[in-house]
Design goal:
This protein is α+β, with helices and mostly antiparallel strands. It has a domain of 89 residues: Lysozyme (Orthogonal Bundle). It has 16 helices and nine strands. The strands form three sheets. The chain has a five-stranded antiparallel beta sheet. A two-stranded antiparallel sheet has the order 1-2. It has a two-stranded antiparallel ribbon with strand order 3-4. The radius of gyration is 22 Å and the shape is globular. The two termini are 27 Å apart. 43% of the residues are buried.
């Protein structure tokens, strides 16, 4: 389940629905007014932006105060550092990999069709799907509106969550999911890909053309939305994601092991890097790559697709696990 909060600012006009700037009176005044007063001001704001009154009232009918459960999670996020390989073995355990292989086989035709259309290897689609919600089995039980309302009212980042709340109300207003099934993790991400409402708006796809961008139940929409997210962030089907390497003793780790230091594959090879177990190098030595060493190793030569995965979750641990599990699910190197 996703533990990400994407740090973006939005200034968009969407189908007649205006998302306020950071100067939103409701967002900035949240903690300076009682809860009920804040909800009423939010109601007026939402209605002025196109949300039907009955949609808002239904969404807030059973929300009488900020959620203590949500605030507990928001204030007690773990900070313990673990080694990358331990993280990877926990998230991409043998059971999840085996389950991924079965799901890939089950939806093989659809996944290949989506992968071909969006130019994204379906192995990565299945891997992200599996890491986020165990292939749709565990999507979270926090009511999204309650979570976002709580964080919009009381979180230090209430302006960000205020915008997410308005996007969430838009999802309900347009009928893409009903309130009963609009649940997710504590910070408001939901659906089988665990999209925040803003990510749903920008990247969700109605692949089966039924009028709904249904990332909660419809597998075609789930797969296409994951693929579209990757494509829109720069995914290149003709490029690798990462290769595990060994370093020569002569290489200055302090100088070269840095996610922001990039040079061509040919230049890296001339420095003496070798692949593990004789894995072949990509044929194009002009490819740009960076060398990283997650805490505890291994050494990874990462390519632009690795950084695309980090747009989803800004963690080298997460991106490294997505790519590694994709290879395990499809039982072959992906490059």
């Amino acid at each position: 389940m996703k533990r990400k909060i994407i740090l973006l600012t939005f200034g968009l006009i969407i189908s007649g629905f205006f998302i306020l700037s950071s100067l939103s009176p409701t967002a900035n005044a949240a903690q300076s007014m009682p809860w009920n007063e804040w909800v009423q001001q939010l109601r007026a704001e939402a209605i002025a932006q196109g949300i039907r009154p009955e949609i808002f009232d239904d969404a807030f009918a059973n929300i009488k105060a900020p959620s203590r459960r949500v605030l507990h999670f928001e204030r007690t996020q773990p900070e313990k550092r673990i080694a990358f390989l331990k993280y990877r073995s926990t998230r991409a355990d043998p059971f999840r990999i085996q389950l991924g292989r079965k799901e890939y086989e089950r939806y093989h035709k659809l996944l290949n069709e989506v992968g071909f259309q969006f130019k994204v290897n379906p192995c990565f689609i299945v891997s992200i799907w599996g890491l986020e919600t165990s292939y749709g089995r565990y999507m979270g039980d926090f009511p999204v509106i309650q979570s976002l309302a709580t964080l919009a009212y009381e979180s230090p980042r209430r302006v960000f969550f205020h915008k997410q709340l308005l996007y969430a109300l838009q999802i309900l207003n347009e009928g893409h999911v009903d309130l009963q099934h609009f649940k997710g993790e504590w910070a408001g991400a939901s659906g089988q890909p665990q999209f925040l409402p803003s990510s749903w708006h920008h990247y969700a796809i109605d692949y089966d053309h039924d009028g709904k961008k249904d990332i909660w139940e419809t597998k075609a929409d789930v797969f296409a939305s994951i693929a579209n997210y990757l494509l829109q962030h720069g995914w290149r089907a003709d490029q690798p994601w990462a290769i595990e390497v060994t370093l020569p003793h002569s290489l200055s780790e302090e100088q070269w092991v840095n996610v922001d230091v990039t040079q061509s594959l040919g230049e890296w090879r001339r420095l003496g890097l070798n692949t593990i177990d004789g894995r072949p190098w990509p044929s194009d030595e002009r490819l740009q790559a960076a060398l990283i060493r997650p805490y505890g190793g291994p050494d990874l030569l990462i390519f632009p697709n690795f950084k695309v995965i980090m747009k989803w979750n800004r963690s080298t641990y997460y991106a490294g696990t997505v790519g590694w599990m994709a290879e395990q699910i499809c039982a072959r190197p992906l490059q």
